[in-house]
Amino acid sequence: MDSTTATEGVMSVVLRERGGAGSAITNTSRQVSVALGVAVLGSVLAEAYRTRLHPYLIILPVGARHNATISIAQTQVIASHRGPGGDRLLTAASTSFVAAMHVTALISALIAFVGAFTVWIWTPGRSTAGPAPVPGAPGLDLAEAVSATEAADG
Question: Is there a contact between 57 and 65 (Cβ–Cβ < 8 Å)?
Answer without folding.
Answer: yes
